Amino acid sequence: MIWLLTIPAAIVLAVIILAIVYAAALNKKTNPDRPEKIETANGYVTACGENLYDGEGKLMRFRGVNFGNWFVPEPWMAVMGVGEFETGHYTFRRGTAAMKANPLLTDDRIEELYHLYMQNYIGDEDFETVKRLGLDTVRIPFTYMNLLNADGSWREDAFRYLDFAVNSCEKYGLYAILDLHGAVGSQNMDNHSGDDNHFELYGNRANMDKTVEIWRKVAERYRDNKTVAAYDLINETRRKPHRFTGRKQFDFYDELYRAIREIDPFHMILMECFTFPTHGVKETVYGWENVCYEYHIYNLTPFSQKTCLGFYKALHNLKGYKVPVYIGEWNAYMNNADWQTTVEYFDKLGWSYTSWTFKTNGYLYNRGIYKNRNSWGLYELDIPPVDLSSASFEEIAAVYKSIGTQNAAKTHVYEFYRELNERRLANGAETNK
Q: What is the rounded average pLDDT of the residues 285-290?
């Protein structure tokens, strides 16, 4: 019995037991049964068992890319900054506040700049590029600030750019995943939520209700749209700042799930276990149907990429989830071999994926201001950020007019996907759509 052992011996025994359990989970086959066809097709992408099926009931997986830094510019890859305004760190919320404090800008000019950025950063040709590279899915991160006015009322043009994104996906035969990257009040106090100064979603009933309202509106608008493959409820939500997801977050997922299902019984819903599979709750607890679990994989450890991927596989097996897996964000940085290893691993397990991200501005992280950030996009701009707190309209507009992908350099990530597609075509591979 363990209590009869010395403390060191008990520790050794515990480590041995954990190693055996981990090894068993790592070696267990993940999603071994993958029927090529189901008979319950309804025109929508559907989660059935541990697999995804397209509108015709054929086995499929997402292979795509994020359009990050578009709806929600992030400070380490943004083309704008805020100088010494507030903390000096750009976020969507702080950037808007900095412009409002800028005596050279009027509210109308600020609105004009917003549209100038949205129309130039991503265009029709970018969706075409995704298709040409043999990818089939675009994850579209957006924030409540794209939809709502400062007073919480809805913008008259709230869905203008989401509609553009979805319509462009339809035009080029791509799937669209709608990802609420920034919930009302911020779900994580991280800059990629658009607001690193608040953590006021959970426990704030007004903010939670507004977030429910957002998903109800989204469901009403895209209920009958089969190009939209899934609703990604909340990006990288946390139970506390700098902590990971827990039961409280999954209980709110359930609230959002039921609000959506009152309107839309068709679309698949994505539940993010942030950051590891062990931070999730089994789907059977809530009785969910047509859901997929999502993980994000960024290996910034000394361990190999294969070891990192195996860790996620083992934890997923330990939890015993019986739902499909979608890696909503991942990156293998400058290592081409790791890009290949990762894609092969996902293919082997039947996991879907969208890498982060399509295009970045590398000016800051290439100059060492943000460390451990390199090769994040298929395309990379090199533009000094413009100070929103002091620059004139003309100065900001000039930068925003220069951010089209035609002004960006193709990276080794672009070449990886291009070569991967060439190999697939040579082997007679079929696309999902």
A: 97
Backbone angles phi, psi at 172, to 5 degrees: -105, 15
CB of 57 within 8 A of CB of 40? yes
| Residue 296: closest CA among 357, 373, 338 | 357
Question: Max CA-CA distance within the chain?
Answer: 77
Q: Count CA within 13 A, CB hemisphere, residue 275.
A: 13
Residue 292's Cβ-count burial label (10 Å; 0-12, 13-18, 19+) is buried
Q: The pTM is what?
A: 0.94
Residue 307 makes CB contacts below 8 A (sequence gap 6+) with: none
CA distance 379 to 222: 30
Distances (CA, A) of 255 to 114, 230, 269, 291: 32, 17, 12, 14
The stretch 235-262 carries a mean pLDDT of 94
CB neighbourhood size of 345 (10 A): 20
Decide: helix, strand or coil at residue 3. Answer: helix
What percent of the chain is predicted at pLDDT more than 90?
84
Give me the mean pLDDT over the 95-107 stretch.
98
Compute the distance between CA of residue 279 and CA of residue 324 in angstroms, rounded to an integer: 16
CA distances from residue 333 to 203, 213, 299, 311, 339 in whole angstroms, order as listed: 37, 37, 9, 19, 8
Contact 47, 324 (CB under 8 A): yes
Token output for 188: 């994580």
CA 209 and chain centroid, separation: 23
Which of 404, 353, 402, 355 has the alpha carbon at shortest distance from 375? Answer: 355
What is the model's pLDDT at position 62? 98
Q: What is the pLDDT of residues 382-423, one digit of tens each?
A: 999 999 999 999 999 999 999 999 999 999 999 999 999 999
Span 155-209, pLDDT tens digits: 999 999 999 999 999 999 999 999 999 999 999 999 999 999 999 999 999 999 9
β-pair type (59-60, 51-53):
antiparallel
